[in-house]
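hey can u check if this looks right to u? its 295 residues, i copy pasted from the old doc so theres a chance i mangled smth
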Amino acid sequence: MAVALAERIGGEVVGCDAVQVYRGLDAATGKPTADERRRVRHWVIDIVDPARDYSVADYVRDAGEAVASIVSRGRVPIVAGGTGMYLRGLLKGIVGAPARDEALRRRLTARLTRTGPRRLHAILARLDPASAARVPPEDRQRMLRALELAVSGGPSWSERLEGGGTWARPGERYRAVKFALDLPRPALALGLAERVDAFFAAGLCEEVDRLLAAGVPPTANALKAIGYREVVRARLEGIDPCATRDAIVAATRRLAKRQRTWLRREPGLRWLDATEGDDAVVARIASAWRVLDSR
């Protein structure tokens, strides 16, 4: 739909997905196809080695540069994806924070490995309840970052967000219209299950094997994404990765629920009924953009 919209209004697509940024992660990420990339230029997809951590600050920089390039050529940036934190950072900006303490990160990561994410999330809830409410235990990278700031003795992550005034400020850095697609719950559940089956059909298990053989550590943030983390764990434990299918479906449903909750809180966002079909939805978005662009 983003590609069809770009063709209709003269746009280019800026990815807004925390996993699509990684090269070599293709089977379970829903990246645009080669044909879609030929039809429309895409940005912030396949730009990072999977062994490297990629942060919200990295995304805000890269997506901001993409938006500037697109606008400079008289075209329309179309930001598409499901990572709400990336969208919020791009539109609101990010608050400054000290550089990562590598020694502290190693200690926290080791504890995470020993005790699991929920134990560390409970600690975060005591030290910084607002951040714990915002970041689920499954989002290990951001949970660890919030913990780093909470135990460092300085302002917590939530205090920095409030004090910096970025996410709380009423305005946004770009003039934008925002849309989310809505589906009835049964149709959504069916689609998510079919999506997970497509992961395996696309060679998810073989892709994980290639990544591990290429030296990507099992602890890399790229491999903590849904689908990858379950297959990695199965490989390490000597379990048939096909047996993780139901766990991946359940994790995908939880992610969809978190995305819906996040989007419900996104100011100015318009919900569209995806059952109307791609053409009708794209026409609605194009019409809304033209109204905004004419002002």
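The chain has a mean pLDDT of 91.
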